[in-house]
Every structure is written in structure tokens, then in C-alpha cells.
Records
---
Amino acid sequence: MVVTLRARKLRRGGRIRWAMKSIFAVLSVIISLLLPSLPWARGVELLGAGATFPYPLYSKMFYEYWQLTGVKVNYQAIGSGGGIRQLVNMTVDFGGSDAFMSDEEFAKAPAKILHIPTCLGAVVLSYNLPGDPKLKFTPELVASIFLGKIARWSDEKIAKVNPEVNLPNIPIAVVHRSDGSGTTFVFTDYVSKVNPEWKSKVGRGKAVNWPVGLGAKGNPGVAGLIKQLPGAIGYIELVYALQNRMPVASIRNKKARFVQPGAASTRSAADIPLPGDTRISLTDTDAPEGYPISSFTWLLVYQEQAYKKRSMEKARELVKLLWWMTHEAQRYAGELHYGGLPEEAVEKAEKVVRSITYNGTLIHK
């Protein structure tokens, strides 16, 4: 009797172990089938560096993309100059820049580099005055202040454009970028277009010899210094001003309209014919409703992706990211006060992305 009961228990235990093995086997098959589609299964990481101008938007986009696909994008906001430099040195998968590369910079690159616009941004003038008044500036005022020709806020030239504002009799403290910057390129490009003296004495560039002022690193650094220094004025990307609750000035555009910077007026700046490679300056735009200190910001990549032992998988994931950013991810631009890409810009971006190759074969099909 004891032997019979022991035998039954052994048989029952064997059946349980067999059932458990079967269940684990089925689960293993199911997991192996599902893993390729799960967002955390990819393990691909893309590395980028460059402009601080679009960093708030890129942070949102890259987080959402990781949630959607499992592809991590590590972006270092080190300034447009640094982004171009690291791409030329082939230490990143893509560079970010608010300034399109010049022909001279192209000549120094080891291979052909493409520009993919991702959004539009506004460079705004923000200031630190009692009561945060709403100011208006003409192109002449902007140039005169940053040339150091207008030194006090009570100057009659500022008062004439802002008769409703009680301007304090305090010195103007100009704040500018100290690092190589696409934001600086956009601002100096604008002032060079509207003021011959600035064009001849200072010019445009990611870094220039400033006639007056104090330097700070990055958009966050400039914003922080403006907030700390009474009487300060400086140029920063619109998002940084809004995030820090800083006042911004309206600027008179080419059509003699004082335009307040915002997502709509920034996007309107691109309502002009665009070149196929998208390398275009939008400052002092001809668009009637356009904010005059607006610019595309670009991601820069090599057209031929088979370099430095890069895998086809990484190249394919980069192309997928670029396509997503110029299409589905555009919905995040307006939320964060950037200008979304107009239809023509999207069409031009599509053609550029479709031209990317791996060993001469088109990646996007």
C-alpha cells in the first residue's frame, strides 16, 4: 500500500514537471516572437551634438521616439560650432546646427554632408527692466544698441519708438554668446542685412568680435545673465525666454510691421521659395507676417553612411529618426513655441533624406 501511494506521487510529480516544462517552452516561443517589436528590444543608440537653440524640442522628440521605438538618442547641446566640428571629425552620428555650413566648411569635410531642417526657431531680444515693459525695436535700434552707440535706456531714439513706456535712465548692459553658436550666426546674419556699419565692422558668424558687452555660454547662460543683471539686454532663443518668464521685444520687419515672436510668426518667415538643399537664411524675411530674426535649425548627416565601420542597422535607424522628426514629430513644435515645418520645407526634407545611402544603395525606399 505504501509502495503504491509513493508510485502515484512520483507519477503525479512527473506530470507536473512535464506540464511546467511545456508551459515554459511555449512562453519562450511567444517571447522570441514578440521581442523584435517591443520598444526595449532594439538596443540601438544614436549620438548627436550641437545647437542649444532647439534643445528643448529635441529633448521632447528624442524621449518620445525612445518610448515609441526603443532607440535611444543621446544629444549633447554644445553649440552649433561644436556640432559641426564633431560631425566633421566623425565622432557623432549627426550634428545639430542653426547655421548652415558654408562652402568653405563643406570643403574641409571628409565627405558630402546633408542638411535636414527640423523646425524653425526665433532669436529674440530679451531684457531686464523694472516692470518688464513691452518694447518695440527697429532694425536701426538693434544695431545701435549692440554696436554700443546707444548706451542708456532713456535714449531718445528708444523713447521715440516706445512713447508709451517710461524708460529708466540706467546703462544698457549688452549680453552675448561666448561660445561658437548658431544663435549668434542667426542674430549677426540679421544685423548684417539691416545695417551696413555692422556688416563692415562686425559681420556675421557663429563667433564674432563683439564691440561691447559680456559673454555667456549657451542660451541658458545668456538667459541667466540677463535675469541677474539690471539693465541687461541680450539675444536668446524664444523658448528660453518663455521658460524663464522673460519679456521679449517686437521687431519691425521688412514690411514695416512690428512682429511679436511666436510659433506662427516664426513659421511664417519660411513662406518664401526654398532651395533644394534647404540651406537658406530666413532673417529679414520678405514674408509679410514673418518674424524677422527667424531661422531653420538643421540636423547634419553624411550622405554616405558606410564610414568608420558603421553598421547598416545604425544607418537605417538614423534615417528612420530623420523621417519621423520631419513628419509625425512636427506636432511637438508648436507645443514648445517653435515653428513647424511648412509643407514645402517638408517636401524638400523628404528628398534630402531619401538621398542617404549605405555603400551606394539608397536606405529609404
---
Amino acid sequence: MDLGPESEFITLITFWGMRLISAIAILIAGWVIGNWANKRVKSIGKLDNTLKSFLGGLTKYAILAIAVIAVLGQLGVQTASLLAVLGAAGLAIGLALQGTLSNVAAGVMLLILRPFNVGDYIETGNIKGTVKSLSLFATELATSDNVHIFAPNGQVWNAEILNFSRNKQRRMDIVNSISYNDDIDKAMKAIEKTVSKDKRLVESKGKEPTYFVNALGDSAVNITARFWVSTSDYWAVKCDLTKALKETLDKNGITIPFPTQTLEITSGDAEMSQKKAS
């Protein structure tokens, strides 16, 4: 039975209308689920804020991408062909932006493995500074004299990273040089007395202060004072004790030598010099 053009039109409208409603429903569901997953990831307590934001956004947009592909399928778009075209385009873009994508990959590794956090003082390659921010593309730092550094993540990731802030305590060695004519025991007692007065030292099992002769130099005997301090106190203690130890050695009459050279002239050299002068 022929229903006529009007009935076919109504059937077509109904068919595509149902598909459109399904597509909208899928898109809304993808948006809701994506936002829910984003919040769930950000609520994980073990992750820091930078990593929470990155993983939450990645999860959300991955769900939205799946929803969009499903919507296109509901609307009759050949998703297999579309994915093939997008894959080819992605390959071309990836080759064109190879350096940038390597920075993104390095940024992902830095965000996951976390060799440093914002606020840490690090050294990587020839870069030293306090980390101010870490993104997918670059790490921003500030030097001790507040010079801004913008370092691509690939450069940071591919170099050895020294983190001076990660551990709560650090060992410090202060070397004091004394003359060969001075009393070593007297100098060591004076150094130990001065160091032990500082209340910022950490004295726990295995971290007791030690004092020893570590080298016999060309013109001096080197005595090392070795002890532990909190990382936050490191530079303050180093500066204060370096000054205090110099003053202590001076008060005890202990000489801090400097390199000297002795020049010997034989009689033959003197006669030669006189002949040249005449």
C-alpha cells in the first residue's frame, strides 16, 4: 500500500528526529560523565594539584571525544573513514610539531614521576633555580637573583635533575685550613666547641657531628667539620659558622695560611745575572 510522499516525509522526519534526539542524549551524557570523572580524579588525595588538574582534564576530554564519535555514528557519518582521516592528519601534525610533542611527552613524565615540585630548588643541565610552575610544555624557574627561566620540558627531562629541597635534612662539610706549625688538637677542639654551640644542628643516630683531618695540603692542614642541618637552614648555618670559625681560630692564635712560594737563587745564577747586566 502506497502511503504517498507525505507519509514518507513524516517517516523520514521521525527517523532522523529520533537519531538527533539520541545524539543529543549521548552528547549530554558524555558531558555529565566527563565532568563527574574530572571531579573524581581531582578528589584523589594522594595526587598533588598540578597532576590532579592534568589527569582530570585528560579524562574529561577523552570521554567527550568518545561521545562525539558516538554522536557522529548516530547521525550517519562513517566514523571509520573519519578516524582514518584524523589519524593521517594527526600523523602529519605530529611530524610537523615533533619538538613540541617531545616537550609534551616530557611534561607528562615530569607530572607523573614528580622529580620536583613547585617551590623546590633544582639544578638540571646548566640551569639552577626555584621551580615556579610546571606545565605540559615548559618548566618556569627563578634564579637566586630572581632572573626568570623558561625551560622546555624536553631539556629538563633529558638532563640529570638535582633536587636540593626534596630531603628534609642535608649534610654540611666546612673545611678549615691551619698552618703546619699549629697544634692540630687545639684547633680541632676550638672548631668543635664553636660548632656545638649552634642549636640548628641535627643530632640523631648516625648523624652526629664529626671532626677530622681530611688532607695535608701544599701549605696547610685541612680539618673538616661534618654535621647535619635542616634543608631550610642550610645556607644560613653555612654562612654563620664559616664566619664564627674564622673568628675562633683567630682568637686561639691559629694561623689560616695562604699559598706561598720559595725562590732559591744559586751563586751561578747570580753571576750570570751580573754578566748580563754589565
---
Amino acid sequence: MRLAKYLAHAGVASRRASEEIVAAGRVTVEGTTVTDPAREVSDSSLVCVDGRPLDGPETRVAYMLNKPLGVLSTASDERGRPTVVELLGHDGARLYPVGRLDGQTSGLILLTNDGELANRLTHPRFEVPKTYRARVGGGPVGAAALQALREGVELEDGPTSPARVRRLGPQELEITIREGRNRQVRRMCEHVGHPVRDLVRTRFGPLRLQGLAPGEHRRLTPAELGSLRAL
């Protein structure tokens, strides 16, 4: 197994972040510093990060959380603000969120110790769909705004891909995107004259936010994990 993959499976970080950790010289294998993320190691290898021995690959798990407003999509915060990892408590697994929801967006977020799965779910190449319910200002949403969102709008970091959009009410939309830009849905709606007042992620790939109150979580079933890996 390649070293970066080993670190990801051990719950150290995502595959991409693990490559950076190795390149920074923070990893030793059998007492020797290694800077090549492609270095082959086995489950019996003595691997240390910052001098701390790893126990080897953890059992890979993933959880669905209904993120409340004001909670950060990170493992820790230097200012002591609440994070999604803290909401799950500690069961021995080193979990980190899959992608991000900004502090004022609530809803479905995944947490896992499977770096390879996290990378596949967030990498633009795989175009995993994410669905949001947005309550917007600016008056009733008209046909022109809907068409613009469906065709893609020009943002400061480039045009967006076409989105799937349907109107749930005069000022309520369901929007599905396959990109993961920072605050993308908010910026798209702002661009067409309908700033977001409330935003909830309701789906991530095949998973739906159902049966979980804000702050509640549950472990994904083997079937759900299989459906994510098959995307």
C-alpha cells in the first residue's frame, strides 16, 4: 500500500492532505524519514507521524450528521467554536468532515476516517450531486432567474456548470449542483437577484437527510457506504 493511502486509511487525513504531510518530512517509516507519498508500506510497517506511532489502518466508518447553524465543518477550532466532529463525540476513530458547509448553512454533512472515500466524494472529477433547499429574498423567483441558474451563471471564479433547479414556492428553491466551490449556491442565487436567507443541504449523492433532528447523527450502513463508493 502506498504511504499516503496508508495514512488516509489510518485516519490521519485525507489522501491529498496525507501527501502534503509526507512531503513536509513529518513521516518516518521504520525510523527513517520518508518524503515520497508513493513509498510502499505494509500493515506491519512502523509508521510515525510527528514522532507518534500509528496503529495501522482503522476500521473505515462514515457518519451522517444534521449540522445545526453556527457549527463549523472542521475537526477543531482554535477559537473554541463548536465543530461537527465534537457533535459526534469520540469513539476512537479520527474523523474529519467530507467537504464543508459554511456556518450559516445547515443540513447533511458526512464525516469519515476513510481518506480515499472522502477524496472521491469531493474531487470535482467525480461530480457527486449535492442538493440544497434555499429560501431566498428578492421577491418571487421568476422564469428568467430559474433559467439562468439551470444554464449556469458567471461568478468571479468562472462560470458554474448547469444546475438542476425547481421552485418549491414563490421564494423557495431546490438546487442540485455537482461542483463544490466556496458558498456556491449562495453566490449563484445572489447573482440572479435572490440572496439566500436560509440554506439547508438535503441530499449528498444517494443519501437523504431524513429522520435526524439538528445535531443528531447516525452511522452509515454497509449498503449506504457501497452506494457512495459506486458513484
---
Amino acid sequence: MQDQEQRTLLGQFIRARRERIAPDVATGRRRTPGLRREELAARAGIGTTWCAWIEQGREVSASPEALARLAVALALTPAERAYLFELAGRRDPDAPRSEPGPEAPASLRAMVEALSHPAYGLDGAWNACCWNGAAARLFDGWLGEGRQKNLLRYVFTEPSARVLIPDWEDRAVRLLAEFRADFGRSLGDPRTRALIDRLRDESDVFARAWNAQAVIAREGGVRTFAHPEDGLLAFAQHTFSPADRPDYKLVALIPA
């Protein structure tokens, strides 16, 4: 069952994805970017009225089959497809959903402690739930004693993050797009809702990026840092989720 917030978010997301797709045939000047609603409806084999209603956040019944066709028509990535199904309140047979739990699993803590390079664990709201000494040294402004431990709040509001991360804005925006892939699975978590509302007030960059509706999967790659004491550092980032608790993440940074 969807609530109004989910319906509104779903409509905003579908419209944003529709407007990024180029039409099959150029038709001269157009009032709106991307596909028209009737063009998307034709691609997905759904009614134009149904497409308009769902974008308007109205209460409509969407079957998993119709959502799957819509996901294909919008050329969604796996992360975007999962977000679509979560907002629609439907289960994608190819992406079974796991229920979040209240505490970090012991396996996550054990892995973080066993690693000598920077490593930390994130819960469903992207709060740091455990970390090792190497991570605390690298991210002193985030994981230091007495610090606020939410990763998004650190990146978007802590001045030291802009110094530590050389390409700060690009990486901050990417981080938020990765977070949004998880957000669709945690709409019922009041911590997540409160976090987003607070960050929209505290950071103009966050507010703009949130409204852009970007969704991507969390991927690895080289991450550079300008540490105030250790100088320029480069790590290959790897992210894992425990099989028994997929709502948590282990992030390990291996020297590149």
C-alpha cells in the first residue's frame, strides 16, 4: 500500500527519467525535454491517462508486469528499477526485498576490525555503526571522538570534508545518488526522512542534488583524499553487504 509521499515521489521520479530520454524521431521544437507522456505510454504498452495520473501522484493500481514494462521503456538501471518498485509498493521478482534490522551484525564488526586498512560499516540510514583505527585517522572529521556519525551529514555539512575530498561536489552528488538507491527501501524509517529534511535545509548542494532524482548503484573505484597530515592518498573502494543483513554495508578502502 502506497501513501501520498510514495505516490508523489514515484511521479517525480518517472517524470524526471522520462525527460532524460531522447525521442525516437526528431519532431522539431518541443515544449518539454525528452519523451512526451504519450510516447512513453506507447513504449510501455500502458494508457496515456494512466501514465499522466501516476506522474501526478494520483492513486492508481500498478501491476508488477506494468511496472516492469515501464522500467524497460524508461531504460532504468538495476538501481533505478529497484527504486521504482519500492516507491510503487510492489515486489520485483528479480530483486527480492530484505527487511532491515535494528543492529549491525557481528560479522560486519568482525570484518571491520580484522582489516588493517580503512574500513567502516554503515546502517540503513548511512550512519557509521563500526569502524577501525585506520578509518578514524582518515576520516577524523567524521569518525573522530564526539563527531556526528552520519556519512551524508559529514560530506555535505562538515567543512573538513571539502578539504579532505579533492573533487568534493562531484563526489558528494554521486554519494547522494548511491544513497537514493537505498532510500526506496527505507521509506518507513523516520530517521531517514528526518535526515533528508534536515540536509535539505542545511545544504543547497544537497537540496539541488536531491531534486535531480539521480539514482545509481554503489560502485567501487579509486578514491583520493588530501589528508592534512598524510598528504595525498589514493584507495580502491570496495563495498559489501552481509548476506544475512543486506541493509548494512561494509566499506573497505585498499591502498591503490
